[in-house]
TrEMBL record:
The keyword Hydrolase applies. Keywords: Hydrolase. It comes from Mycolicibacterium hassiacum (strain DSM 44199 / CIP 105218 / JCM 12690 / 3849) (Mycobacterium hassiacum). Its EC number is 3.7.1.8. The keyword Hydrolase applies. Residues 30-271 form the AB hydrolase-1 domain. InterPro entries: AB_hydrolase_1, AB_hydrolase_fold, AB_hydrolase_sf. This is 4,5-9,10-diseco-3-hydroxy-5,9, 17-trioxoandrosta-1(10),2-diene-4-oate hydrolase. GO terms for molecular function: hydrolase activity. One of its GO terms (cellular component) is membrane.
């Protein structure tokens, strides 16, 4: 019998040197770290609340809320860099030696970084879209462009336009979801943090910095991932199109790719049951 998990009965917090990290905890068993994506009104709870009952039957689910997204404290830097650091601080604070990781979109990139830099601490790794680089499709993608437009002029309609780009089944974008997302997305502090990453100026500056820096692009170091990896993707993803999966699928040494039809960027929501079955089988295959 599945347990009922609510926002309040799963919410926890832990102090770090740079601020308080909040997270949701459910279930018992081996630790499963769940990392959320980016975008207006996003949170770990909203990404994974529908999956907790299933995964918590087998794992101690730990849904981390990244700094600067309106739930944990804002660490003040670039959201991706802060998320990478916060992941290490969080695992240290909970005294976890080794975790399996699920990362959605931006959270998948953070998970890849964690797996490369701390290979002894990651058992199995699951990503949901969001990593790699465009091979055939133009970049930035439709979803990223709509995201930038929202942060340039954060209106409710622009939020709706972006949300609709996230899914194949448009009926998933309900009034309740829109209002829930709008309440957090329009918060001034959360907006300020997000603009450090997704304003057009910030995005262009980040791309230019990565081109000039004496370090390889993130997709060029994925051969360093030692953990067995499951790449999950929506065939109809308009945020990170399917061709982005080709480099990670080919270069991560022990990677497999599962593509879900009639599904957009939110695989864990839009292909919920199939995603859960696929991921549970992968995590159990020791």
């Amino acid at each position: 019998m599945m347990s009922t998990f609510t926002y309040d009965n799963t919410l926890r917090e832990v102090a770090t040197k740079r601020g308080v990290l909040r997270y949701h905890e459910a279930g018992d068993g081996p630790p499963l770290l769940m990392l959320h994506g980016s975008g207006p009104g996003v949170s770990g709870w909203r990404n994974y609340r529908g999956n907790l009952a299933t995964f918590a039957q087998h794992y101690r689910c730990l849904v981390l809320e990244f700094p600067g997204f309106g739930v944990s404290d804002d660490f003040g830097g670039h959201p991706v860099i802060d998320a990478q650091a916060a992941t290490v601080e969080f695992v240290d604070a909970l005294q976890l030696d080794r975790v399996d990781v699920i990362g959605n979109s931006m959270g998948g990139g953070v998970a890849i970084d964690f797996a490369i830099n701390h290979p002894d601490r990651v058992g199995r790794l699951v990503t949901i879209g969001g990593i790699g680089t465009n091979i055939f499709s133009p970049g930035p993608s439709e979803g990223i462009r709509l995201l930038q437009e929202f942060y340039e002029d954060p209106t409710r309609q622009r939020l709706v336009d972006w949300l609709k780009s996230m899914v194949y089944d448009q009926s998933l974008i309900t009034e309740q979801l829109i209002e829930e997302r709008w309440a957090l997305a329009s918060d001034p502090k959360t907006l300020e943090s997000a603009r450090r990453m997704y304003s057009k100026a910030a995005y262009a500056a980040m791309m230019e910095m990565m081109r000039k820096a004496d370090v390889p692009m993130p997709w060029a170091v994925m051969h360093k991932v030692a953990a067995p990896t499951l790449l999950t993707w929506g065939r109809d993803d308009r945020v990170s199109p399917l061709d982005m999966s080709l480099i990670p699928m080919r270069t991560i040494p022990n990677a497999q790719l599962h593509v879900f039809p009639n599904c957009g960027h939110w695989v864990m929501i839009e292909a919920k049951e199939a995603f859960e079955r696929t991921v549970l089988a992968f995590l159990a295959d020791r």
